[in-house]
Design brief:
By secondary structure, the chain is of the alpha+beta class. Helices cover 21% and strands 26% of the residues. The protein contains 10 helices and 26 strands. The strands form 7 sheets. Strands 10-11-9-13-15-16-17 form a 7-stranded parallel β-sheet, sandwiched between helices. Strands 4-5-3-6 form a 4-stranded antiparallel β-sheet, sandwiched between helices. A hairpin with a 4-residue loop joins strand 4 and strand 5. Helix 5 packs parallel to helix 8. The protein is globular and about 100 Å long. The N and C termini lie far apart (64 Å).
Length: 522
């Protein structure tokens, strides 16, 4: 990659090369002297007030959501106004008028026979902090170049639900879908007005091999931008739910959620289940509180929960951990320079923060897209969502206690190892499906015929029969039958036969031989 030097905000940043760096973050103090991990963020402070005026209702299966409760108002004094309908999720978002009681409204809704769950609209926020310059050490740690020799993510769509996505002026994103949507402002312009979402998308899809800037781990995948967080990185669960529904409708293969909150929601849990049943893999950040509790939606069992590591391949001190943690990925550390390059060990992508440049950030937000990109590499190679999750978690580098542990889950994601395992298993499965099994072979001197009986294991309708190392021609057969018999005229008795099947682009798969030693029936 090209080397460039620049200066922004008085901070010099170094050569853009694939190098390795990491470190142990130190605790920061909030203005009031409390630990920053425990201090409420802006979105938590504001949403704590605002979300009490919004309610999310999930209706029971088989029950059509009422049109803003029109003509069927529940018997309680509060006024509810419709904000949004999520038809596929059977969910409504309602606004509660000032002066109305949230508890009374929820109780009345939950008493309705057609309501499955009624909950406050919980706050959700981005999980990142400390923008700073850095070099891209993370991709070398994940053996990106080795992975690219097997897959680059082509044909896979990753929906990034975040502050929006914008392709940068210098490096940019390889494939940014024009079908994005902004659920914060209610329009089809999913441009980023914060920088967080573009940074996340860059880890997945930054242009690579173009001689400019930095690289993306699944640079031939397509990013579907869905804006669910505002310009300050805050938002609501209902916007995330709408984004998930939209991503499924648009055919996304993977949904990246570098966001979350401390409280679970049954409606959100069901939405994650809906996505899984639709064949979509959801990858979410565990959160930046450094707590023994994974944030939500990462905490749901149907979501791949991603924690963050530093250069030393240890859990970053800010990264949440616990029972629901699945695996970890590089998240960066603004407070260390373990590789000694004079720069903080951050995750480095092109974004606007606030102006366009190559910015380093840290957080579980930065770790999550590494796993989404790794899943895109596997799905591009033919894996399903569930298979991608299984191979990613079974091929990790175990960096903690042996096996799964609360600090690092199954370990550090290894895209190249996951791809190698997947492709090896595919070759083995293809060989099993394409196996040619010769059950019996006999030569009849009285009529000069070679008779070969073959069991049917082939997903093709064409065979090649070889006799004593020489092909005798192609033979068509009906593969719906469990076995068939090939008859060929021969002037002399053969000593060895083989049958070869064409399985897609593969030839000479699992050749089987039978030696004919006598005129006895085989």
């Amino acid at each position: 990659m090209a080397r460039r030097w620049g200066r922004a905000g008085g901070v010099r940043w170094g050569p853009l090369v694939l190098c390795v760096a990491c470190a142990l973050p130190t605790a920061c103090q909030a203005p009031d002297g409390t630990d920053e991990a425990d201090a409420p963020t802006w979105v938590e402070r504001t949403a704590a007030r605002r979300h009490l005026r919004r309610v999310v209702v999930r209706y029971r299966d088989g029950v059509q959501a009422q049109d803003a409760l029109l003509g069927h108002r529940p018997a309680f004094p509060a006024e509810l106004q419709p904000l949004r309908r999520m038809q596929n999720l059977k969910t409504d978002v309602l606004s509660l008028d000032e002066g109305a009681s949230l508890d009374d409204a929820l109780a009345a809704l939950r008493a309705r026979p057609d309501v499955l769950w009624a909950e406050p609209d919980l706050p959700r926020q981005a999980f990142s902090n400390d923008p700073l310059w850095n070099v891209q050490w993370n991709l070398e740690q994940l053996h990106a170049e080795q992975a690219w020799s097997m897959s680059t993510g082509s044909g896979v769509t990753v929906a990034v639900l975040d502050t929006g996505c914008t392709s940068g002026p210098d490096d940019g994103l390889t494939h940014l879908s024009p079908r994005g949507y902004d659920f914060v402002n209610g329009d089809d312009d999913a441009s980023d007005d914060n920088g967080h979402g573009t940074h996340v998308a860059g880890t997945i899809n930054q242009r690579t091999g173009n001689g400019v800037g930095v690289a993306g781990l699944a640079h031939q995948a397509t990013i579907l931008p869905i804006k669910v967080l505002d310009e300050r990185g805050g938002g609501f669960m209902s916007d995330v739910l709408s984004g998930i529904e939209y991503a499924i409708e648009q055919g996304a293969d993977i949904i990246n959620l570098s966001l979350g909150g401390s409280s679970p929601s049954e409606i959100e849990r069901q939405a994650m289940m809906d996505a899984m049943q639709a064949g979509v893999l959801i990858v979410a950040a565990t959160g930046n509180g450094g707590r023994n509790q994974v944030s939500y939606p990462a905490g749901f069992s149907t979501v791949l929960a991603v924690g963050a590591t530093d250069y030393a391949m240890e859990r970053a001190s800010y990264s949440n951990y616990g029972m629901r943690l699945d695996l970890v990925a590089p998240g960066g550390d603004a407070h260390a320079d373990l590789n000694g390059d004079g720069l903080s060990d951050l995750i480095f992508q092109e974004t606007l923060a606030p102006e366009w440049d190559y910015w380093g950030m840290q957080g579980t937000s930065m770790a999550t897209p590494h796993v989404s990109a790794a899943a895109a590499l596997l799905m591009s190679a033919g894996a399903t969502a569930s298979e991608a999750a299984a191979y990613l978690t079974s091929t990790t580098l175990d960096i903690g206690d042996a096996g799964w542990d609360r600090q690092t889950g199954k370990g550090l994601v290894q895209p190249a190892a996951a791809l190698e395992a997947w492709l090896a298993d595919q070759r083995a499965r293809d060989g099993e499906r394409c196996k040619v099994e010769v059950v019996a072979a006999r030569y009849r001197p009285d009529c000069g015929r070679l008779l070969v009986r073959v069991d049917n294991h082939l997903p093709t309708d064409e065979l090649t029969l070889w006799v004593d190392g020489r092909p005798t021609g192609r033979v068509l057969y009906n593969w719906h039958k469990q076995s068939w018999q090939i008859s060929v005229l021969m002037e002399q008795r053969p000593g060895r036969v083989s049958v070869r099947g064409s399985c897609g682009s593969r030839d000479d798969v699992d050749v089987a031989y039978v030696r004919v030693a006598s005129d006895d029936e085989p």
